Amino acid sequence: MDCESFSQLLGSWMDGKLDAASRASMAEHAQSCADCRVLHEERQALRDLVRSSKADELVPKLIASIRESVFDERDGRLHPPPDDPSGDPPSKTP
What we know:
Distance between the termini: 44 Å
Largest sheet: 2 strands, antiparallel
Number of helices: 4
Structural class: mainly alpha
Radius of gyration: 22 Å
Number of strands: 2
Order of helices and strands: HHHHEE
Oligomer: single chain
């Protein structure tokens, strides 16, 4: 097992989707490679954080943040992002 293979298989390993031989190879590599061990620990910490958060609280905050970035409540119109020099409203392409 090399680091590139480890990185590519990490999600599947953490999801329990690998066969026994691949799981053993991943575990062995994680024990012997400090960089990949840290990658696994960081990914696990991120998963734990996401799982512990309350999605019903995060989604409304995300929607509000998006609305604030594109909607001007003063005139009720959508506006292009600040870095759009054209000033044209966003197109409505399907």
